[in-house]
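[agent] plan:
  1. take the single chain provided in the ticket
  2. run structure prediction with default settings
  3. attach structure tokens to the ticket
  4. add a short note for the reviewer (M.T.)
[agent] executing step 1
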Amino acid sequence: MITDKTIKFLLTVIAANLTFLTIKDLQLFPIAHAQYVSSDVQKVTLCEPSGYNCSKR
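[agent] step 2 finished; step 3 output follows
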């Protein structure tokens, strides 16, 4: 026989999944899209806060 705790646990899991699916369908969170262009290479140099004493690589 299924106990009361098991039924409560299963109903909680179902409710959490339904909530997740509803939030996903409503698109409350914006979708982030990455941009990839192979010719756009950006070099980065690490410097001290003063702007001097930068790395040599």
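[agent] step 4 note for reviewer: Helices lie at 4-26.
[agent] ticket updated
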